[in-house]
Amino acid sequence: MRAPTGISELDAMLHGGLMRGDVTLVVGSAGTGKTTLALQYLVNGATKFNENGLYITFEQMPSQIYRDAASFGWNIRKLEAEGKLRVVCTSPPVLVQFVEERNPIDAMIAEINAKRIVVDSISHLESFIPASELRGELYRLINHLKMKELTSVFTAESHEVFGNHLVVTGVGLSFLVDCIILLRIVEIQSSLKKALTILKIRGSDHDKQLREFEITSQGVKVAAPFSQYEGILTGAPRRSMTEAFTEAFKKGKRI
Amino acid sequence: MNETGLRELSEKLIGTEIKAELLHLFHMNPGILDTVESIARRVGRMPKDVETEISPLVELGVLRKERFGNLDVVSLNMSKDREIQKKIAELIEGSAKK
Which CATH code fits A2-229? Predict the structure, then answer.
C-alpha cells in the first residue's frame, strides 16, 4: 500500500510512505530542496526498495543532476547503466504528448519496469500550455500515470519565499494531486531554516507538525518539530505562549 | 581508405561548430528527448541552424528523430553511437599503424 521515500522521519510523518499509485506534489520556493527530495525518493526506490524510477527534468540538464547527485553519494550514471533509473531531459510540450499511444517515455517505463516517476518541475508546464487547457492536460497526465500504477512525485515552484500568502499553484493542481508536501524557508532568531510539513494526504492520516529539515551530505534529513514557535508559515514566527511562560519562569520574571 | 574514411566520418560528425556542440550535448546528457526548438535553446543557437546540422547526424544514425504526437522528437541512438565510436577507434588505430 505504501511506497517509502527512504527518508525515515518523513516516512514516519507519512505513516509509512507515499500511498502507492498516488501523485504527490512537493511545493517550495527556490533553494528549498525539492529536487534533492525528489531525487532521493527515486534513488532510495532503486537501491533500497527494488523499485525502479524515471526522472523527468525540463530545465536542469542531466549532467548537472549527475554532478549534484554525486555530492550526496548517489551514482545516477551507475543506476542508469544497471537499468534501475533513467533521467529524461525534455520539454513540457513533449511531456504532454506522453499520453499518446506508443511514445518513448512509456517505452522507457516498460523497459526498466519503473514503479516511481518524478516530474521536475510541473510549474514549467504553465509557460508552455495555455492557461485554459492546463488543468485538463494535468488531469490527463495524472490519470495516465495512475493507469500505469506509478507512484509519482511532481515538484512545483512557489513564488513566495516568505510571507503569509501561500499559493500552492495557480491552476488548482492542489485539488488534482493526492498528497502535498510543503517546503519553506523560515526565519527564526535571524537565521534561515528550512521547514517541511504535509498539507494533505487523500485517504490517510498523517503527521501535521511543521518540522525543521536540512540538506546534509546524505540528502534530506528531517528533524524535530518547531514546537517552540507559532506562526512559522506566516514568515513572522513568535515564541509559543507555553515556551514564553517557561522561559520567563526560569528567569524569575513576570510575562 | 583509413585516413580518408576517418576524415569523412569526422566531417560528418563534427564538421561544424554546431554539430560538435550537439554531439557534446548528447554525450553529456544521453537522456535528452526533445524537439529541435528546445535543443536549440539548450545549446544557445537558433532552431533553423540546429535543424540543418541535426539532419546529417540523423542520416548517420547517431541521432534519432521520431514523430511523437504532433512533434518531431530527437534523441541519441546509443547503440549506433557506440558502433560509430568503435569505428572511429579502429580507423585511428589503422592510421597510426601506417
Answer: 3.40.50.300
